[in-house]
Amino acid sequence: MSEINWKSKCWVTTIFLVNEGKVLLSFNNNLKTWIPVGGHIDLGENPEEAIIREVREETGFDFEFLPKPKQDGNGLVKVLKPMQVQIEKVPHHGEHINIIFAGKCTRSFEKETTDDNERLKWFSMQELEEMKGKMLENVRESAIKAIGICTAD
Q1: CATH of the domain at 103
Q2: Exposed, middle or buried: residue 42 (CB in 10 Å: 0-12, 13-18, 19+)?
Q3: CA-CA distance, 128 to 56, in Å (whole number)?
Q4: What tens digit of pLDDT does each residue of 81-134 get?
Q5: Of 9, 18, 10, 6, nearest to 101 (Cα)?
Q6: Number of domains the chain contains
Q7: Pick from 104, 102, 101: which is nearest to 20 by CA?
Q8: Does any domain span residue 108?
Q9: DSSP, res 113
Q10: 3 inside domain
Q11: Which bin fits 74, alpha (ψ -120 to 50), beta or left (φ > 0)?
């Protein structure tokens, strides 16, 4: 059996949370740019459990995955549909294998920072358009896609 190289590769999960047609992003102090909420998948967690924990820790918000997970009749199989899986090189951190979801807030409140004291901001579609060239393009495009997924529901 082969082993996963945890020293240079990390499994992470992020989510583009949408509420009232706006998407929540966090200003990452290390990367100096806006990214979705999320973090590392801890030992023993699956991606669903990790992102639920990360959202709770970073924002305190309640959310539902979109599209909604499907489960078979006997509860043995649950199918989540991530928006994408992304492999990204992170400065001073090796590679992240990032499982990216979209979700709709079911209850939220105004919060200005994460648990790590990183700024939070709700971006409208217009604000995302105005951020072209001012944030990572894949983040901006995915944020726009998430608004579409969550407002189509």
Answers
A1: 3.90.79.10
A2: exposed
A3: 25
A4: 999 999 988 877 789 999 999 999 987 667 787 777 889 999 999 999 999 999
A5: 18
A6: 1
A7: 104
A8: yes
A9: B
A10: no
A11: alpha
For 81, phi and psi rounded to 5 degrees? -115, 95
Distance in angstroms (rounded) separating the CA atoms of residues 110 and 140: 22
**pLDDT tier at 144 (50, 70, 90 boundaries)?**
very high
Residue 45 maps to a domain: yes
Question: Do 107 and 61 contact (CB within 8 A), yes or no?
Answer: yes
Q: Is residue 4 part of a domain?
A: no
Looking at residue 146, its amino acid is A
What pTM, to 2 d.p., does this model score? 0.90
| Residues in a beta bridge with 24 | 17, 122
Q: Which structural domain range is residue 87 located in?
A: 9-152
SS3 95: strand
pLDDT digits (tens, 9 = 90+) for 24-45: 999 998 889 999 999 999 989 9
Q: What is the DSSP letter of 117?
A: S
